[in-house]
Structures are given as C-alpha cells and as structure tokens.
Design brief:
The chain is an alpha+beta fold. The chain is about 20% helix and about 40% strand. It contains two helices and nine strands. Strands 1, 2, 3, 4, 5, 6, 7, 8 and 9 form a nine-stranded antiparallel beta sheet that branches.
Amino acid sequence: MSNLDVKIVNLEPLRVICFNGFGESPEGLALEKLFTWAKAHGQNGRVFGFNNPNPAVGSPNYGYDAWMVVNEQAQAQGEARLIDFPGGLYAVTRCQVTRPWEDIPATWQALVRWREDSRYREASHQWLEEHIAPNGEPGGEHFTLDLFLPIRE
C-alpha cells in the first residue's frame, strides 16, 4: 500500500435517505432496504455507508448505515430517515474488494497511516465508504469502494 493513490476531496453537503442494518453482516441488510426503497420511489443516487454502531469486542453483531443521495421530493417512510449531511474535507482512496473482505480494513489502515504522514490532521466528521458499481447496485463477490477519511488542515 506504499503507492496508495489519495485524492483530497471537499464533499459538498448531501441530502440522503438512510437505512440501518444490524447483525453479523449488516451491510447487505442495510443496502437491501435502501435499494428496495429506491426502486419503489424512483431514486438512483450516490450510495455511501459506514458502521453504526461499530463492532464490539466479543460480539459478532454490529450495525451499518446505508445512505443514498436523494432529491428534494424524497420522503422518509417507515424506518427510513432523511439526513442533511454537511459534507467536509476528505482524503479518498479506492479499494477493490473481494471475499473475505479483508481488503477493506487493510485499506482503511493504510489511509490512516497516509494521513499520519501527511500535512493533514484528524477531523471529527463522518467516515464514509462510497459504493461504486457500474449497474448502480453495489455488492456481490467483487466490488469497489471509495474510502472517505475525514481530514482538516
């Protein structure tokens, strides 16, 4: 990972719909809820996610929030939540993921090391994973994430 390709991105404010999954594989649960809602409501925006809550020692269960950028007409129903995310400054790198998903934590660790060796400092806004998929729906055995590490100057 010494050749980590990092871009500095100012992520603009986003209006997102949010669904949470909880269990041993919450990403799939949250994304399934999100895409079911999106199809029913004619939405197709950028998709982000993050652990919520984070894994706890001794438990196989944790949570994952899946976000989709939506238009102003979008309405939250049921367990969906609308969020106005303020955006922020990020260091971003791409992660090509294959089972058993070990690429994700290794790439996050490399990105944090990159920040520690850079002129940027840790920031407190939300860490994000943007799901990149050619057909609009992430997942499967192989997929791509852009990892967004919050930074400040």
